[in-house]
Specification:
Blueprint (H helix, E strand, L loop, with lengths): L13 H4 L6 E2 L2 E2 L7 H16 L1 H4 L5 H12 L10 H13 L5 E2 L2 E2 L29 H15 L7 H10 L7
Antiparallel strand pairs: 1-2, 3-4
Helix pairs in contact: 2-4
Length: 176
């Protein structure tokens, strides 16, 4: 051991070691049992099929009945990919019927509907302030600066890219 306490422990329950079988119904013990689910289906389905088609096979004597009983015996250990046929069939049906997006916490996983954030904001140029604080409110100073630029013939821009584009459109003159 590498200094760790304990060892490897494996526990196999009886349900994993022995397949699900049916051997008693109440106090009645089934003959030649116990039977697996696959055997019960072949037993019941085969009996129903033999009864319904008796007129077709009656000329063959007991041969179809013997073949039916042999088939019940033959499917006792039937497995598909290591599982009994009903579990394999149930798994295939579940895969074919599940939602293609899958599930999250038991609910169908869906993409959320897009939501658009509809907000606006305005970036205004800072007003040119004199060395001494003026009594003019800031909004009025910004409006005056904007109007002065508009009068000069250059588009007022809020970002550096807009000023660059305004300068390119105005024949090389850039906004101050």
């Amino acid at each position: 051991m590498s200094g760790q306490p304990g060892g490897i422990v494996r526990s196999y329950t009886g349900a994993r070691r022995h397949p699900w079988v049916l051997g008693k119904l109440g106090d009645w013990v089934m003959w030649f049992g116990p039977y697996t689910p696959a055997q019960l289906v072949v037993l019941g389905g085969g009996a129903l099929l033999l009864i319904r088609t008796f007129s077709w096979w009656s000329w063959a004597g007991p041969v179809p009945v013997v073949l039916w009983l042999v088939s019940v015996w033959a499917v006792r250990g039937a497995q598909i990919a290591g599982q009994n046929p009903f579990t394999a069939l149930l798994g295939a049906v579940l895969v074919l019927t599940r939602h293609p997006a899958g599930r999250i916490r038991g609910r169908v996983a869906r993409d959320r509907a897009p939501s658009y954030w509809g907000g606006r904001f305005v970036i205004e140029p800072a007003p040119a302030l004199a060395a001494a604080p003026s009594a003019v409110p800031v909004r009025e100073a910004v409006a005056a600066a904007t109007q002065a630029r508009a009068v000069a013939g250059v588009r007022v821009a809020g970002s550096g890219l807009d000023r660059l584009l305004a300068g390119a459109a105005g024949g090389g003159r850039a906004a101050a």
